[in-house]
Amino acid sequence: MTKKWFTESVESTVSMMDTSTENGLNTAEVNKRQEQYGANELQEQAGKSVLELLAHQFKNPLIFILGLGAIVSFFTGHLIDAVAIGVIIVINVLIAFWQEFKAQKGMEALRDMAAPMAQVRRNGEWVDIPARDIVPGDVLKISTGDILAADVRIIEANRLSIDEAALTGESEPVDKISEALEDGNISLGDQKNMGFMTTMVTSGTGLGIVVGTGMQTEVGHIADMMANTEETKTPMQERMDTIAKTLMTVALGVVAVVCVIGLYHGMPWLEILNTGISLSVAAIPEGLPTVVTIVLTMGSTRMVKSNALAKQLAAIETLGSTTVICSDKTGTLTQNQMQVMKAYDASGRHWEVSGKGFSPKGEFKPLSHSTDAKDSPEMMKGLVVATLCNDSEYIQDGDKSTVRGNPTEGALIVAAAKAGLQQAEMLSTGGYSIVEKFPFDSARKMASVIVKDPQGKHFLAIKGAPDVVLRNASGFMVNGEVVAHQPVSVEGNLAVAANPAEEMVANYEAAIQDFAEQALRTLAVGFRELSEDDLKRDHTELEQDVTILGLYGIMDPPRPEVRAAVNSCYDAGVRTVMITGDHALTAAAIARDIGIIRSEDDKVVTGSQLDEMDDDELRRICPQVAVFARVTPEHKLRIVQAQQYNNEVAAMTGDGVNDAPALRRADIGVAMGITGTSVAKDSGDLILLDDNFSTIVKAVRQGRQIFDNLRKFIRQALTANVGEVSVILFAFLFMGPEVALPLTPLMILWINLVSDGLPALALGVDPEEKDLMERKPRKRNESFFSDHLGTRIVIRGLAQGGMSFLAFNWAMGAGLSANYAQTMAFAMLVFCQLWHIFDSRTFSTLFRKNPFTNKSLLGAVALSATLSLGVIYTGVGQFIFSTEGLAAGHLVTVFLAASLPTLVLSGLKEMTKIKFV
Q1: Range with the lowest mean pLDDT among 45-54, 156-165, 686-695?
Q2: Which of 138, 146, 328, 556 is labelled catalytic?
Q3: Topology of the domain covering 308-334+559-691
Q4: What's the whole-model pTM score?
């Protein structure tokens, strides 16, 4: 919606839309506009078909090389090798396909939020039509409970309130008006004369002229952003792509070297191909995609126990890489329950209200005085007024308490319950009854009710904006007595002495200012005694000359655990930024309270300020901004993109339709599981089952641990690959191409998937490192091989390959059969890896980590050794793998010699502190 309809008057809107409030549109005009604007529905881009998704998985370089190896194996008669490699390909492709297939959601949920039917005026009559048939210019009837079917300029509002939280982030329903607004640069949440598609009417009635349908609505704009927002690859996906390309390059390079040497020595093409297959299989960790998926799945299971559900497995590790968390305020950082936090009575006393949520457990704590709330007549009278002049309902079912109705009014009822006043009891058995209600409206900025008390007397209970109540007041209740709000005559002279009423006014206004500085929403309460004659007067007359009882400061308070969670993020080098549709003052106060704003250098930026910035300026200020307030969906998307441009790994939390584009764009979108819309949940990668920010911090810890364990696994797996490639190359270079290869393709597959794969899988449950949450986050472009890990993989792999080659060379030199020599090389490499895994599980050395802290690893090592010995000593194993049983002395020698690469290199590292060994 490009035009700023909120600045137009009702008359101007009617004229510009060429419609009539009395008759609406006629049939001919409707047909014309339906042809011009199309159906009132959101357009959906077609996703990839199942076949396209399946074909996409074969673009993985690892899959490509394995597929080539399987084809060559098949045509060269190595059928068992071809089948084994083919099974590995199918498993990896199906796992990747299933993950991507589940991710194709989002727009369907957005479309489901639209209203199915609507009531519009056509040809002078009200008719019910399918919402998709609405056209711009239609006059739409708005009633309580409706879901708005289009964007409308409200032309009539009768106590009309609309819940726009899912679209704007505004935590309370917005009271609507019909008058034009002068400021043309305001956010959606401040456009009080507009109604937006998919929002819900909470109270009142009204009329609106449709000014936007389908993709021309605000929610249509969000749908368009979702359709055109590219889902970014997670850092782990980028790192895995880098590994795949690196391995492909290495494999092709090694095969090329072998081909050149083979051709130089005049080897037949069949033997060159056979050697190339063995090397390509040796260079690729076939189990890598599968094991990574299994490790992430185990992490996902642990995270569910912490109330975090991962939709995308890669997102789990991404959390560990997060450098900035862009968090929504309402319900995530706060409790999503409006509560009375502070109170002020007309005697000048300040109170703090304790207790959590809707629970009646709590009390009014006096500040700087000792009076109990029940001993303060004005406080108790004020709570009686707040309870009776209230349309919300307090519901208590056993230990569970809830409020039905307006959140702010509900906060007053709960506060009264903490002081022992129950609305239902007061009206049923307490002797109070409501005679007549005068609901709140935006013109009066107050509400009142006529109450009959237990003594049969009547009084007017009134609540409203503090300045309005003061303007209508004639006095204050002080210590149970009414003090007139007027100059006091002393010895016939006015204001000769200090006027106590003026001091009360000053104190009252100071309390209002104090509450405002704490970002508390303030309501005043008062009363007026009524005579029988008063009962016949209009309520606008009755709402004059009231006696002020006090003030209540209301807000949605921070969750108790959030401060510690934000501090934990800060200690871990993860910056928390609040991005909210709420007002800047409220957002900043919460941010200071919970530690998001830590110094004067931390900035608060509003949506209107963002509109004046280009993308370069936004990127420049992002590191200094702690709070973005009063923002639109487009702003949120720009903020996330700016963070990513600054090389940040950005997590984004949200619960509404307005959050969906940013959730989709972020490196990890975190949706709320309780309050979140289905659109937000489908757009996110992680769902918080408890809507709690502290759960994100737990997930960050899990993500970091998973990344550590993946690095340990990759170190173990690639070290085995280097060992396998090097033993073949050593034999090829030093023994000549006519000698049998030290390892067959099936032996290599066994090492990669079973003898090495099983123990490496157990690294996925390795306990976390001690400094896990003390490290700074990893940079987006930091590889798995940082901190000399790549060098260590090559050195350890060459050492293991060297030991395996020595075993093979000795057996061949001793006149033993080629199968026996291959079995010696195979056993040496298996045991080298089993020794090495105890060093892989630490970033220091195996001498610094207790081997018994991961019992799963010990079991996996024992199982791997047993199965590998079965390959050597059983008839089935010997038939399939062409092995021969080793003599006992040879087996013991191999087992002990296999420990040398790990023990010697780890000892060297421990003594010299050289990091790359």
Answers
A1: 45-54
A2: 328
A3: Rossmann fold (3.40.50)
A4: 0.74
